[in-house]
């Protein structure tokens, strides 16, 4: 065994999260480093989905809205996600896509900021949907959208700024932005901070309550393993809930949804972020998937995540010829999410060959190899193998 | 056997759709008349969902976006719904909730109508979410919302009207509105017609293309049996697609979604109605559920639906004491959907007792018993039993 192989074995032996892997369906001959795109299947989810379909839908039918807890699923599952992102209960509802939740959050933030603040800032390096949706939110609330890099945000904030939409971790490079200090800067300017947690929730502590974040959104199919296209979530800070004025006031956000009243009276609390009938099959698959977090601390996950990405960078340095790849991921821990992005010529072709050899990451146009490290099911031997195979593929 | 019981047996024997019932999971001792709230489970759906979860997600993981057809599911399933609502292919995408699709449709319609048309009309008798969402769409496009009853629409239309949002079948009374003539009246005023098909699609012919409907939305968990909270759909007429300007331009509606470009360029065609990552578990359960329509004509469904509701009204007249209930559902076939709504004191309590005796309808505040008739799995003996049990419960 190589020295790195021995190191990996020792790290795995000491890994307090190593036992989590058996809760997931992953073949032993596969190194799955694409959990930042689609989390692996928790082994108990198929049985739970079958129960939802066969018994709850097939036998109980409409009774399940009450008896199987369908109606209250959005807020119940929100409360299950809450501790993972540092939120007290009663501030998160699950439902709709991330894009739709970005729209709710940015529009609501702009409205709370008041009419005289006419600019919305958006992370210019963000996953594109956030930019497109923020542009629509700006257009429909009479604001101007201004794309800026996160580093430039403090210098651009002014008394014209209504809201700022930022990504916690950049989807491409894996850069972790400084949520506490950026949120504080936004607040100092009198504006509201909206954070997109797609690439951080479930991989590192977020601290929404602690850092005073106003609104946040995130998906659940990456590090939360909710399944393909599983519903996203919306966080509305307690202090803002009474003023949260949704652009999508569906009947599920009404104070008396079954009253079928012609006039709209918003529900109290986080329920105000709901819209239409919740998508039960996907939502309850997510609820089941979240059970893998029972007894797991997000701090332990973060510690292992950093150890995994450190070790991967070390393996890449050892196995891959000098100058063949360039890391886009910040070396400093405080600026790194749970992925490593390597720039490489022919990245699309290289990723195909990696996948053929059982190392699954993904390719991001035009030249990025992206490797995501999910601490609940990726081990150090996986990491050593990924680095070694990458070295072999790059010859 | 009573005379009505004999009639029911004869009607069932002659029913060309009687064979469809075996495709659904319904116990023999249950009369399920709530398919207009949640359609029954098609028997082959659990196995298909299991394959999606265990193999497509669990084994293929991200490869399924291409290999299992996940990415193209919204438009593929839209094309499967299209013939049921009289639409040619390429005009429907599936995704999001009905409420979210109402928002897209009404905002886009107002934008297409032009700035000088400053009023949006909405069916005052509609399911409330449509009114709430239309109010938001009006507010965010600088229009005034004006609620009117469908009968009053022709008299209220003017050169100020931008768009009109109407329900095809009223959720409460089961009244079927005259889609062809109302659409023609809206067009004569130079406005756009948006129809909500939640309570008509799958129960009767809609004729979207034939009648020149501009935009339409609908849910899939009622007569289309897609499962609890299954994704809704959006129809955008071919002629309008190039001008369809979505308020929710997520990355899935981009011409080059994986280009991850900062500038938004809308996709051609119906894809423009997509928003975020599609919710695969629910969406593919719906796709499987739609197979029950193979070889079924919506005209045959309509003929049976009217025969069922006629027969139910006849049974109610025979079994229920004079004056105990009052039908809110229009007697004329051309004004009747696929449900019967009976006003009755203590309707909530009456419905509980019906359900205890195996006759499942639902209660709508304050005094309505609602019975939905799904021709694919409700037979005439069911109807006779429902009428008889109602008579017994009302003593």
TrEMBL record, chains A, B:
Q: What does this protein do?
A: Catalyzes the cleavage of L-kynurenine (L-Kyn) and L-3-hydroxykynurenine (L-3OHKyn) into anthranilic acid (AA) and 3-hydroxyanthranilic acid (3-OHAA), respectively.
- Enzyme class, top EC level, equals hydrolase
Q: Which keywords describe this protein according to UniProt?
A: Hydrolase, Pyridine nucleotide biosynthesis, Pyridoxal phosphate
Binding-site list for pyridoxal 5'-phosphate? 98-99, 127-130, 196, 199, 221, 251, 277
* EC assignment: 3.7.1.3
Name the pathway it acts in. Answer: Cofactor biosynthesis; NAD(+) biosynthesis; quinolinate from L-kynurenine: step 2/3; Amino-acid degradation; L-kynurenine degradation; L-alanine and anthranilate from L-kynurenine: step 1/1
Task: Check the record and name the NCBIfam families matching this protein.
Answer: kynureninase (TIGR01814)
Required co-factor? pyridoxal 5'-phosphate
Residue numbers bearing the N6-(pyridoxal phosphate)lysine modification: 222
**The protein's name in its UniProt record:** Kynureninase
Which reaction is this enzyme known to catalyze? Answer: L-kynurenine + H2O = anthranilate + L-alanine + H(+); 3-hydroxy-L-kynurenine + H2O = 3-hydroxyanthranilate + L-alanine + H(+)
User: Which GO MF term does the entry hold, naming one?
Assistant: kynureninase activity
Give the organism, scientific name: Streptomyces lanatus
Which Gene3D superfamilies does the UniProt entry name for this protein? Aspartate Aminotransferase, domain 1, Type I PLP-dependent aspartate aminotransferase-like (Major domain)
Q: How does it assemble?
A: Homodimer.
The entry assigns this protein to a family as follows: Belongs to the kynureninase family.
